[in-house]
């Protein structure tokens, strides 16, 4: 009798131990998100306290952190460049991705659907640095000869690369949004005599609207956060782009290009962390909004 | 009996037209993958040889092989897996098997989504601030791998959670009825049944970690090192960073060299993805529920 209850006690303790261990690991995602914010904030704090001029930071296009007499830290040109590229990339990516998602979700069947999804997955698997290399070595000469411009690195090149990089994510989220529309909706439409396209156009698309919106938002988040590909495709010169062939510089690429050359703790080093905080907040906001929109759908 | 009226015929044509339009949109997305693969193979295969894969770089990285970069990438990926797989699977177990439907669980899910959305360069800043500077690991494999581990953690959590959820609830109930504790049920019944699914996620994570550049640039990967790393406290070369370096930083590189490096990197990544897809299909065929 005693031995049996002892065994149960041991198992009970093991059970409790693992439950606690799983809980600790479970909350790790929260710990890391908070940790990322705290550590990036901690390194950037010196800049925010001592050198930050809010008006200059957000509204000056001049990023001259290494100037000897008068260093200026303005991110306006980089924000404008990143925003322009992201908007252009989404304008290219969204119609194709949503079209592809409609084809996969509503038209393709069986083996075809499987193979198409695998190819889209392959598109998603290509590393960022390889996309950057493609921008440099394939797209750059292609743009120069096609449009007869002196340089192929800039807004257009980056937007095309970014559109291809975002396409698999947007496609798969859009496909999920279409799948989430109940089949009864489609059956009801078809029972009323609607064709497949009328059903998609009048029933499925409106019902999946929020899911598509959040797919687009996640694409924008991807655009703001992309680093290596944009570093290599943008031409990396600081100016507010006025044409699609202009070179620009992204926020992310600035950190990637300059962090290695700064001394730990210097104002320049700290200013790069301040950009990091800004990026963290932007992507945080975009992801939360996207999640909120999708959650709104599920509630309804 | 029901003859095709002209309206039906017209509708069929319209539908076919839309099918073609969307099909073409999809093909336009897929063409680049195929074109990229062909270009990489066409231009990179000249560089491919045993010495290219197994020698050190020579003449300021304009000749020779890429072995230290391949070796370093393996180091980085293995160490990051050692950290992220136990943690990620455990987090998924908590979310799938224990977590009540409350605010904390909602926060964990939000944090996971956010962790996946944080830009890779911000992960790099975190790696520098936390592992290199604060914990004093210096620029080392350890710092770089931990940064990679945190970055790829959401991939493991989400894919493991999905495979745990796909184990039918009846399996757990049967086990509880036998008097097993919650943990015994998880360890002996749920995990073995979810194993292949979790493995698929881990392989995809390997593919992801091997291709990342930004998070390792300032935390442990070096542009050029004349020796191989001996411990996790050494710096290392890495394939992804090596591609960036030979493509942008080194003058007079023969054209085939960066294409060769890109081909090896893409080859590894797509091989991993193919294995994961194969396991997933195999698994679907074997499942009896």
| Tally of domains of chain B | 1
Mean pLDDT of chain A: 89
Largest sheet geometry of chain A: 2 strands, antiparallel
Task: Please trace the helix and strand order of chain B, writing H or E for each element.
Answer: HHEEHHHHHHHHH
| Low-pLDDT runs of chain A | none
The general outline of chain B is globular
Helix/strand/pairing class of chain B, anyone?
mainly alpha
Helix fraction of chain A? over 70%
Describe the protein in words.
Helices cover about 75% and strands about 0% of the residues of chain A. The model of chain A has no long low-confidence stretch (mean pLDDT about 90). Chain A folds into two domains: about 1-50; about 75-300, MetI-like (MetI-like fold, Orthogonal Bundle), CATH 1.10.3720.10. Chain A is mainly α and about 300 residues long. Chain A is globular, with a radius of gyration of 25 Å. In chain A, strands 1-2 form a two-stranded antiparallel ribbon. In chain A, helix 6 packs across helix 7 and helix 8 packs antiparallel against helix 9. The relative contact order of chain A is 0.14. Chain A has helices at about 1-25, 30-50, 55-60, 75-105, 110-125, 130-145, 155-180, 185-190, 195-205, 210-225, 230-235, 250-260, 265-300, and strands spanning about 65, 70-75. Chain A contains 13 helices and two strands; from the N terminus they run αααββαααααααααα. Chain B is mainly α. Chain B has a single domain, classed as MetI-like (MetI-like fold, Orthogonal Bundle). Chain B has helices at about 5-45, 50-55, 65-100, 105-115, 120-135, 140-165, 170-175, 180-210, 215, 240-250, 255-285, and strands at about 55-60, 65. A two-stranded antiparallel sheet of chain B has the order 1-2. In chain B, helix 3 crosses helix 10 (about 240-250). Chain B is globular and about 70 Å long. The two termini of chain B are about 40 Å apart. The model of chain B has no long low-confidence stretch (mean pLDDT about 90). At the A-B interface, helix 1, helix 2, helix 4, helix 5 and helix 6 of A face helix 1, helix 3, helix 4, helix 5 and helix 6 of B.
């Amino acid at each position: 009798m005693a031995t049996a209850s002892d065994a149960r006690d041991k198992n009970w303790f093991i059970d409790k131990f693992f439950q606690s261990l799983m809980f600790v690991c479970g909350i790790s995602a929260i710990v890391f998100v908070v940790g990322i914010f705290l550590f990036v904030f901690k390194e950037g704090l010196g800049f925010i306290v001592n050198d930050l001029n809010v008006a200059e930071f957000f509204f000056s296009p001049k990023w001259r952190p290494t100037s000897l007499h008068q260093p200026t830290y303005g991110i306006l040109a980089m924000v404008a460049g990143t925003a322009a590229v992201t908007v252009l990339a989404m304008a290219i990516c969204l119609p194709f991705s949503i079209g592809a998602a409609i084809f996969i979700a509503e038209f393709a069947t069986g083996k075809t659907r499987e193979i198409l999804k695998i190819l889209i997955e392959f598109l998603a698997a290509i590393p960022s640095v390889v996309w950057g290399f493609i921008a440099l070595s394939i797209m750059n000469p292609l743009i120069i000869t096609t449009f007869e411009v002196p340089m192929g690195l800039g807004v257009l090149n980056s937007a095309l690369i970014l559109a291809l990089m975002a396409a698999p994510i947007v496609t798969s989220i859009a496909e999920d949004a279409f799948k989430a529309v109940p089949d009864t909706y489609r059956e009801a439409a078809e029972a009323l005599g609607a064709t497949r396209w009328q059903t998609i156009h009048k029933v499925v698309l409106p019902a999946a609207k929020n899911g598509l919106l959040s797919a687009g938002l996640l694409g924008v988040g991807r655009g703001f956060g992309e680093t290596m590909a944009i570093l290599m495709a943008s031409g990396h010169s600081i100016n507010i782009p006025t044409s699609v062939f202009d070179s620009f510089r992204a926020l992310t690429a600035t950190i990637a290009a300059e962090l290695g050359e700064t001394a730990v703790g210097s104002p320049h080093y700290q200013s790069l962390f301040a950009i990091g905080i800004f990026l963290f907040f932007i992507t945080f906001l975009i992801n939360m909004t996207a999640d909120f929109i999708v959650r709104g759908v599920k509630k309804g | 009996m029901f003859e095709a009226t002209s309206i039906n015929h017209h509708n069929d044509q319209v539908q076919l037209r839309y099918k073609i339009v969307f099909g073409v949109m999809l093909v336009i997305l897929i063409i680049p993958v195929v074109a990229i693969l062909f270009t990489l193979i066409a231009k990179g295969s000249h560089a491919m040889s045993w010495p290219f894969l197994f020698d050190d770089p020579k003449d300021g990285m304009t000749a020779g092989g890429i072995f230290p970069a391949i070796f370093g990438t393996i180091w980085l990926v293995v160490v990051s897996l050692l950290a992220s797989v136990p943690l990620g699977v455990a987090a998924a177990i908590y979310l799938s098997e224990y977590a009540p439907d409350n605010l904390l669980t909602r926060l964990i899910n939000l944090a996971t989504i956010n962790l996946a959305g944080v830009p890779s360069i911000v992960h790099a800043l975190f790696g520098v601030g936390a592992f290199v500077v604060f914990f004093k690991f210096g620029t080392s494999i350890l710092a770089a791998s931990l940064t990679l581990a945190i970055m790829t953690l959401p991939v493991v959590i989400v894919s493991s959670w999905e495979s745990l959820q796909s184990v039918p609830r009846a399996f757990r109930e049967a086990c509880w009825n036998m008097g097993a504790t919650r943990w015994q049920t998880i360890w002996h019944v749920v995990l073995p049944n979810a194993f292949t699914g979790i493995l698929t996620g881990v392989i995809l994570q390997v593919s992801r970690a091997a291709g990342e550049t930004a998070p390792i640039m300032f935390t442990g990967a070096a542009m050029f090192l004349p020796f191989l790393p001996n411990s996790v406290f050494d710096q290392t070369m890495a394939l992804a960073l090596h591609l960036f370096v030979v493509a942008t930083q080194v003058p007079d590189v023969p054209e085939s060299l960066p294409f060769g490096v890109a081909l090896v990197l893409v080859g590894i990544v797509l091989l991993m993805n193919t294995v994961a897809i194969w396991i997933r299909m195999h698994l679907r065929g074997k499942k009896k529920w």
